[in-house]
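Narrative of activities, Objective 1.

The group set out to show that a structural description can be obtained from nothing but a protein's sequence at a throughput compatible with the screening campaign. Below is one input-output pair from the validation batch, recorded exactly as produced.
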Amino acid sequence: MKKRLGYVLLIGCLLLFSFQIVKNKLHLLQSPGAVIENYIEPDYGLGAGHIDSLLPFPDIKKGERTPFDLWNYGGKGKSSFMDPNLPMEWEKWVEFHEKQKPELMLDIKAYMNSRYNFTMNSFEGKFMSGGRKPIMQGPVSRLPEGIKSFEELAKLSAEEIKEKDLFPFKPLAHPLASTAHMVFPDSWNKTHPEHIRIDVDHDYPDEYLPEFPPPMFLTTHKELGDVTDGKEITLANYYEIFNGLLTPEQMEGLKELLRPTATTWFNQTTHRVTKEPSAGVSCFSCHVNGHTNGAFELAPDSRPHLARLRVGTPSMRGNYNLMQLASKRSIRSMDHFAEIEEYFDGDPGMMQHIGPRAHQKSVANRMGDFNAMLDFPPAPKLDAMGNLIPEKSTKQELFGEQLFRGKAKCVSCHGGPAFVDDYMHDLKVERFYKGRPQGPIKTFPLRGIKDSPPYLHDDRLPTLDDTVEFFNLVLELKLDKKEKEALTAYMLCL
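Output recorded for this entry:
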């Protein structure tokens, strides 16, 4: 009896002691947080029922087809994290895509042809900076049925265009967003067949993509023009080309920009989209010669995966003049960007499973150092202050410059030596179509813009003419055909 009473007293003392500890340490406990009772969410100007008007994202496994109209979907996904395992065994994975890819590519081609009329018409005598590839003429975006011209469309209000579903510039989705990742153009894959995917190919005709390989211009050696002499820079030739031009630190940075490393889907494991194991990709696999080859990806800045925006590869030229990198996250330095580049879709867990890039800060700094030397292409018609030289310019180009700085409002976002304000802007394009708002996007420089089709962050605008039509409509500028053609002519001079 005394023994049992002793146990009871001991337990009581322990409970009392524990209570005192908890009482004295309440500040260490996590409170549940405040909750507004009977909460009703405001529409925030997006319109009543804006969430309810969107479809829930479908539950789709890796590799399965995704809708081309992903702007119609919204909301939250099941998880922020990826699974390093395929949904089936490797042999079945290959077999699955060998069966799905031909039909998928036919449907992608049909979809792109429903949105664009790729006429293959180019501007007479106008070429990209390398002097070989013609610049394609537009607009090639198809007008909605019943609308005869872009001028007729521009007379309608945003509300009317939205209600009648007449907007020809809806977002462009990654054609296989369940797997997503980098999709390289045919011109790249012919030289680098190790990057041919078993599941999907590029959706743009090569004529509407940047020249390959593009020239490279350095801030430190303007006298050399294209320092590559028409070559693609690789690990095999970079030393021969740049020895005697760069500092040893810059050589190291360039080497790292060229060094392949594993990614979410290009790697040595079976979690891949190439037939054979891959060494991965390098920065210059997409930003070839410090420019772009037109490859596209999904931005790693959001979840679920189907909500991530398609992003085309921007040029690295002129990054020395930018304080914002990445389309939506506003990364503030080139060395930081080199450090966190989207090799693993913003998922450190996948990096651990496949094998990290293992970049030290000092290496990223050197990559940023070389990046900071990549110059824009020459613009012979511009003076030292970025103005057109009248003696070298046509009346149409000079008229375009006047519009650019006036009626067309371009200079509001595109000023200074790089023709960019270095801000993010929300164009609120959802005023014109029913779908998920895309929010603020980084403004891109217009210096050398003729070399970087297609345009806008998600490649939805194949030509500069399409871009002018897009902004004329979205900003409600009411430009006539002559004015729009002059704006394109001016931008070809930049």
